[in-house]
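HUMAN:
Could you generate one sequence with tokenized structure?
ASSISTANT:
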Amino acid sequence: MSTVTQIGQLDAWGGEKGKHFIEKEIGAQFVGTSVNTTQPGGESPFWHAHTKLEEIYIIVDGRGEFALGDEVLPLEPGTTLRVAPGVMHALRALPDSPAPMRWLCIRAAGQEMSSVGNDAELDRDRPFPWNV
């Protein structure tokens, strides 16, 4: 399996769905990585938390907000934040963001990613703080 992949230019990150997981393409066992694009005004489809995964978000372009539990954090290029297991979170790109928000999400659980499975707890009913 290859240990190198090409994720393309920044404006192609995430492809049509806005999210592209690359860990299988590079043969990573213990760390998951996705490249993502959220258009201005776009947001997470729902709140979620992970039981095992710890995540690190790195904002590369655009501006947004990150709901981390009860806290809302501003996002801009260079913002890096950690989401601990069990913490509900969601994000959005500001409607007036000068560019789509482009970001990396790096995930790890202290075990092989293939053994983690889908450990997300979803909350589709909780309103986002920017919508209340």
Notes: The mean pLDDT is 94. The longest strand covers residues 31-38.
